[in-house]
Amino acid sequence: LSAPGGVSLVVPQPNINATVAQNILLSVEYSCRGIATIEWKHVSSWGTTKIVEWRSGNYINISTVYKDRVTTFENGSIQLLNVGMRDAGYYFITVTEEYGTNTYGTIIVNVYEVIYEDLHFVAVLFAFLAAVSAILICFMWLCNKSLHLFQKKTTHKLTASTTEEIELETIEC
Question: Which fold has domain 8-114?
């Protein structure tokens, strides 16, 4: 985009998809004849926040909310460290030339949560439940075997004592 006063701004990537805790580069390239002031704002459902403002070659004024998370570059770009869900939204850049001419740019940032952590939890839970069920199956098998052995011994004793009774009865006759 080029304004009549000679300020131009190029936004090579107007849409950025990021995941939580990722670092993102909001890349722009501006040019103008004089000294420019660059200002970045973030607009989302939580409101509008001024991120940073600086004059080429001079001061940099970073918002306290972004103090440890923003790096500025001379071409007008900024890097946002450790993005979260609240960082999703519209990022507006305004480049103002010292003579009052300005131009605007917009970058849309979508931030997604990492689903792999949830899948990891489900996999670990599934493995734990599978191990517990395997242990219970083995325990039930052992109980079943013990029960069969106990029943065999009891049946064998009963058979022996019945045979003796039958023999005793025949002798008495």
Answer: Immunoglobulin-like (2.60.40)
